[in-house]
Amino acid sequence: MTTPVFRSNNVELRRGGVPIVRNLSLQIPAGCIFGLVGPSGSGKTTIMRAMMGLGAIHSGDMMLLGQKAGHQSLRRRIGYLPQNGGVWPDLTSRECLQFMASIYRTSSHRVDSSLDLMELTPIADRTVATLSGGEVRRVGLAMAILHEPDLLVLDEPTIGLDPRLRRKLWDTFATWAESGTTLVVSTHVMDEARLCDRIAVISEGKVVALDSPGELVRRQSAVDLEEAILRLLEAEATNVS
């Protein structure tokens, strides 16, 4: 059996002593797009931060690419796009990528190709502070993919992007997955969620369903994925109350 790219076992994550994520047990195989879907505040970002070693794991264990989350050896193998974009406003887009390239010892060709993929080349020499929110998001994505990582962790990657570019990126995500890259993507956009190979539906810090989009729809006898997820969330809310 192939070792999963990501594995968590009964993980509990806390913030300020308050449990945010409870009993998280997941396995993610290589070469897939894995979606974290749920309402704001459900724990998606907390899970992603823990994967990157940016949040303490209160209990349980979390492994990525055969190492504990946050291990130094993972830095060159993972690309991360946080919610805030993780860019430097005083630098140009090109300078942001050139700085990251110097850290990863990546060629200048990768800087150019990443800018081109995100359609940033015409504005690459403008400071980030002068860019729109969608353009800043694209800079963050370009930085995340620059070093061709084995695992991409993308928190709401297409916020602020127009439908055409959003579709282009998801087509690219699928191509990367086919070539062996694993993507963990949080989203609340159902048109994007249905493009994932598997989905973990998160509610109040718990995984309430884990399956392919099509199977979730079938199991809920729903018309589409949005209806299926709403039914799952409503059922969970009823159980909690």
How would you portray this structure in words?
The structure is a single chain. By secondary structure, the protein is of the alpha/beta class. It has a domain at 88-148. It has eight helices and ten strands. The chain has helices at residues 44-51, 93-104, 108-117, 133-145, 163-178, 190-193, 213-219, 225-240, and strands spanning 6-15, 18-28, 33-37, 57-64, 67-68, 78-81, 151-155, 182-187, 198-203, 206-211. A six-stranded mixed beta sheet has the order 6-7-8-3-9-10, sandwiched between helices. The chain has a four-stranded antiparallel beta sheet with strand order 2-1-4-5, covered by helices on one side. The radius of gyration is 18 Å and the shape is globular.
Rg on CA atoms, Å: 18 Å
> What is the 3D shape?
globular
Record field, number of beta strands? 10
Largest sheet features: 6 strands, mixed
Helix content: 25-40%
Q: What is the terminal-to-terminal distance?
A: 40 Å
Widest sheet, order of strands: 6-7-8-3-9-10
> Which segments are poorly predicted (pLDDT under 50) over 5 or more consecutive residues?
none
SSE topology string? EEEHEEEHHHEHEHEEHH
